[in-house]
Every structure is written in structure tokens, then in C-alpha cells.
Amino acid sequence: MLLFNRSFEKKLLEWKKFDIAPAGNTFKISGFEQYNYLVDLNLLVDPLWITCPLNDRSLFITSPFNVKIARPWRPPTTTITLDQFFETRVREYCQHNVKLNLCWSGGIDSTSVVVAFLKHCSNLSQLRIVYTNMSIIEHPEFFKFLESNFPQVEKFNIDQRNTALPALLDGIAITGDPCDEMLGCLDPDSDYCYDSSLLDQSWKSMVSKQTKDKKFIDFLEAWFNLSHRSIESILEARWWLFMQTHVQGGVFQNFLNLKNMFPNTSADVGFYDCYEFEDYIYHNTHLLRHFANHKEFLKSYIFAFDHNQDFREHSRKVRSKELIDINSKIQTVNDNDWVFLCDNYSVQKTKNLPLLSVKELSDTFGNSVDHYFNFNP
């Protein structure tokens, strides 16, 4: 299993008779001390960001759910520049002799992906930029830049052709995910934006103010040591936490969303979900600190290409994912139309979803999915 549907987390844990206790918008599970510490750390750092199952890519922590880690953590062995990352990643995609659908929301992450392909793809006719009306509203100058300078690149407004979408799009669908998770999910509306010195404070001091549990701190020190680098500040701890525990859940939830939107494409798990970008950030976490100018290093990369000073100076993360949310009504149903995502990318479900009961889980699966759970931590 690559992912379970977090909408049914409580029901699944009750079905397999785990002893659970509510913790924020998730649960602690009796017998899984280290996993519970992971929940505690998430709730301390940012309770609003527990939006997907917590899967430890370092393989240090035993979860009640036996999830296959698609891309396990490993310490970097080389250094890489940002442009080297972009060029390497683009060339990987361009090796496929299919249409590359670049899902452009108008935000920083997706715009940087489009720029990378425009710079490094040798055959621009291979590209198709998929956007919405809100993409243009969010970044109108870049759309004008595309229209004026890249007529050979197909542009596809899914607001205008939504009803014919399944028949019109083929190839690979690519998004700017999971850039946020790789960069610590720092929210520009948080206190960190207004006082970035908070990020320099000691994570150990932060935790000690909240709990006297020395075993919690000992656990965090052991887990952070797996990074093979110094993790002293809240910024470094936050980067490690989200990069380790939120990437897999985020990318595979996005994978399912893309398959709903573009059923005739081969959905991708996200442009930034790769070791090259992880290696770059590993050696450059200091770039995340100057948070008042959100994702400055990516905006500088874009500026070097389109010379749009206004976007560079004023663009911030907008909580608008119109490119995905255009399919929100269907997605709301589909979000509750699966229980498990298997490691062959198929889904398992029960017949009466979104209604789900312990009895129906038992009648549908019996003991056949017991290997999806860890009963003896």
C-alpha cells in the first residue's frame, strides 16, 4: 500500500481494534510511542498541516499503517546547483516521446516548472501548458510572455473546454508538487513571515517549553541524527519534519487528483519529488529563512528568464489551487471513493462509498489486507 484514505482513518483503526485517542485532527495509537511523538511534533510545529498520513521516509518510525515508502530518504552524496537540478529533471521527462502537460496555476512553484521546461526542453512542441482563468489572474504578465514568445507551445484552458477534457488531453500531467513539503510548508501568513528570527530559535527550547518528557527530546535527537547534518533551529527541524513525513502522502493524493482530472494521461507524482531537488535544499536550507520574500530563490530563477521584477518582488503563496480545484465537485466525491492506494497504483474500495462501516470493511476485505497494518510495534 502506498496510501490510505485519511478520511477513513478512524474507521480503519477501529476496524482493526487499535486503541486510539484524538490528537488535533488525527489520532495517537496505543503502543506506537515513536509514531505518537511524530504526531506531537506536527501539532507543536503546525497543527493545520496534518493533512495527509504521516509516513516516515527515513524508515526509523513504525506506523500503525504498513505503508510502502516509494522514495526512501538517503543522505545526499553530491552537491548540485539549482539550474543543474532543473536541467536534469526536465531531461528525464523529455526522454518520453509523449506530450508533457505542464499544470500551471500561476503560482511560484508551477511557474518555475514551466520556465525550466522552456529553458531546457529541446522540442518545445512537446509541451502543453494547461491552465485556468484564475491562472491568468494570478500571473497575467507571464501568460502574456508565453503568448508573445512561445507560439509553438500549446496552451490549453480547461475552464473553456472542461466538458471535453478526458478526450483532449494525453501524455504526462506534471505539477509543481511537492515543493511546499520539501521546503517545510512555511506559510507566508504565519508569524514566521513577520519575524523570521523565530525560525532561528532552538527547536529543543521550543519543545521543552511544551513538555517535560525527556524521552520525546531523546527521540527527536535520534531521528534528526539520521539527516547526517546539524539540525538545531526550528527552521531546520521543520524542514526535516515535512520533508520526511508529508511528501509521500502529498504526492500520491495529488496523483489521484490528477487521474481524476486527466484520465487519459499518465499522471506524475510531482516535478519536485526527486532526490536532485532534495539534495539541493539539503545543502541550502538557509534559503528558506528569509521568509518575508517567499521562495526568493525560485522567483530569482523565474526572473532571470522573464525579467518580471513585479512578480519577483511581490508574488507570495496564494492559497488558490484553481488548476486542481476546477474539478473540486468531482474530487469531493472521489476523495471518498477509495480506501487504499496499492503499490501498483490501483485503488481498493467498498461498494457503498462514501458510506463506510466496520461491517462493510470486514465483509469486503476480511483478513486480506491485514498486511497493510502493523499490529506489533
What labels describe this entry?
single chain, 377 residues, alpha/beta, 19 helices, 3-stranded antiparallel β-sheet
Please tell me about this protein's structure.
The protein has helices at residues 9-15, 33-45, 82-94, 108-120, 133-138, 140-149, 165-168, 179-182, 191-194, 203-210, 214-225, 234-245, 247-261, 275-282, 296-306, 309-314, 322-325, 328-334, 358-365; strands at 3-4, 20-23, 26-29, 100-103, 127-131, 154-157, 172-174, 266-267, 340-341, 347-348. It is globular, with a radius of gyration of 21 Å. The longest helix has 15 residues, at 247-261. The protein has 377 residues and is of the alpha/beta class. The strands form 3 sheets. Strands 6-5-4-7-8 form a 5-stranded parallel β-sheet. Strands 1-9-10 form a 3-stranded antiparallel β-sheet. Strands 2-3 form a two-stranded antiparallel ribbon. The chain has one domain: Rossmann fold (3-Layer(aba) Sandwich), CATH 3.40.50. Strand 9 (340-341) and strand 10 (347-348) form a beta hairpin.
Fold topology:
Blueprint: E1 3-4, H1 9-15, E2 20-23, E3 26-29, H2 33-45, H3 82-94, E4 100-103, H4 108-120, E5 127-131, H5 133-138, H6 140-149, E6 154-157, H7 165-168, E7 172-174, H8 179-182, H9 191-194, H10 203-210, H11 214-225, H12 234-245, H13 247-261, E8 266-267, H14 275-282, H15 296-306, H16 309-314, H17 322-325, H18 328-334, E9 340-341, E10 347-348, H19 358-365
Parallel strand pairs: 4-5, 4-7, 5-6, 7-8
Antiparallel strand pairs: 1-9, 2-3, 9-10
